[in-house]
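User: Run a structure prediction on this.
Assistant: Running it now.
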Amino acid sequence: MMDFILAKYNFWIYVIIMMIGFYAVIAKSNLIKKIIGLNIFQTSVFLLFISIGKVEGGTVPIYQGVEAVYINPLPHVLILTAIVVGVSITAVAFALVVNIYREYGTIEENAILEMSKTDD
């Protein structure tokens, strides 16, 4: 059993990083901390997909005239695209937080909910 756990240590690390990000999203009421938690969560998914693309004894997928085992480049390409999308979503989220701060004067979720209840 211990050999199984140690053999899959990278997956345990991803789960730990993912749970740290998930905790930040659920437990924190500050909107900036929630965005940072989402980025941590997203990074753990990136690391997971990149590690899945690794092939033991594999080489770069460039034909060299010799039969070889190649690493699958698709996960790496998908993650590059996901990183670009993630950065742009983070920028939009920060812009929304700035607008929320201008409107309510705070970025604490509980205070914003209280203010929005009193507005009704």
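Helices lie at 2-7, 9-27, 31-52, 74-104, 109-119.
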